[in-house]
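Appendix B, record 7
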Amino acid sequence: MRLLTRRLSDTLRSAVAASSARQNLTTLPRTRGGLLGSLWSTTQLRHARFSGSDVRPGNVIERRGKLFEVINAHHTTQGRGGAIMQVELRDVDSGNKVNERLRTDESVEKIFVQEKLFTYAYTDDETGNIVLLDKSYDQLEVPKHLFGESLVYLQDEMQVTVRLYDEKPLSVSIPVRVTCTVVDAAEALKGRGPTPYKRAVLDNGLAVKVPVHIAPGEKVVISTTDNTYHGRIHNIKERSKQQNQRLQKT
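Structure tokens (predicted):
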């Protein structure tokens, strides 16, 4: 009886493994909008070659034996010289930025990376690295330069997205919008528009422009991509409440 039970268990495990393998094959990432339309792959592949015209911001490419993240990419034409891609690259290891030109027909080796969600834990005082935790509470140390200019917005227990290649962090993305507290606000600036703006200092030390009615102590929503004001927490909640009330009436 035990032998029969063991054989049955082995058969079931084999069936589950085969089913999982088939599912993995059918869930490989599909790109849309061109060869490099998908910036990141949830299934980590090694690398692939594409033309320079397909390079997009966010891609990770390999050049001269080093890994670079594409920060900016612009298509330009140089008269008789033909079309080129002007790209700004960030060295993944050093964080240094370089500007290069790629021919549109030039072969470029793109690296496919894994995208994983982490939670900010603390900053190591000795190394200066940012310590993150995954859902299993395993730690990952990330150099500060991988956050770029968005490092100033890092907050306790903030969830961030890390892009990894062979378990090595390549870059980090924080939420597009975060909540900050105004600690100081200057006098209003005279603007041409109906709502004048003034300078305000946030609790992270960053200076931004906010509407004249914003006072110290208020919580505001700021875009982490361009440091612009997007509203007060109170106003946002009120608008959401009003929208819900209108939906209930309809």
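Remarks on this record: The radius of gyration is 24 Å. The chain has a mean pLDDT of 78.
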